[in-house]
Amino acid sequence: MFYSVRMRATLEGKHVSGQERIVKKEDLERVILELHRRPKGDWDFQTLKVERLKEPPEVIEKSLSVRSYKFSCIPLAVNFIVGILETEHGIGREITKPLLAKLQKGLNPEGGNLKGALIVDPKTGEVLNEDPTEGVRTILFDWLDREGVRDELLKRGYTERTLDALALATKNIYCGVEAEVCISDDPDYTTGYVASERLGYIRISPIKEKGSPFGGRIYFVRREKLEETLRCLRKKALLIRELSTLG
Predict the structure, then answer these.
(1) Are strands 238-242 and 58-62 parallel, antiparallel or unpaired?
(2) Integer angstrom CA distances of residue 86 from 91, 141, 154, 201
(3) For 81-139, how does the pLDDT look when each residue is reduced to its tens digit (9 = 90+)?
(4) How many structural domains does the chain have?
(5) Which one of 41, 48, 143, 231 is most buried, by most CB atoms within 10 A?
(6) Residues 11 and 116 both lie in one domain
(7) Structure pTM?
């Protein structure tokens, strides 16, 4: 029997911390306590949602592969993302460059960060969110051997942030997201990533100015695959067995 455990913490309405876990019943109490204690900074509101899964999660064998690139300045990092999406996926720079500029300033048209991802058609650049002020969230994902994968990542010089971001990106691509671009909204964290089945998971630094509270996610999804992809992102429980080859 498996359970989904999701935690979100906010301060004055702004996101502070969050995490998704899928665990067996015997680990439920320990994980709930871990997630309750997870926020490092102050928070004034926290939700913990526990849901018993109707069926066991599907297990996929490997995550996306991981590589890292460091650049001397943000414009070079942006140009790298624009170029690699155009070369490998045919997503025109006239689509990606304005989107990255918005991502660095907050994707919500009402101002600030979008709570969830912006869905964009890679052929036309059309925003596919039903409500452009409401982002799409990816839920129901974790590692089969979370501790083992975390230890392997740390041993290879990555951080615990990579553990959750890599699992999320792996599920996104499994569900039909053609490519994803992410910039953290953490003011102290300037590394972002681009991910796809062809590219793997590529960490990119720096992708924003230190101290900037803005960030978010863009999912490139073809319109004809939208309904199927959204259903998978929201409803399909997924566990990842092990890391793929690391760069």
Answers:
(1) parallel
(2) 5, 29, 32, 16
(3) 999 999 999 999 999 999 999 999 889 888 889 989 999 999 999 999 999 899 999 99
(4) 2
(5) 143
(6) no
(7) 0.94
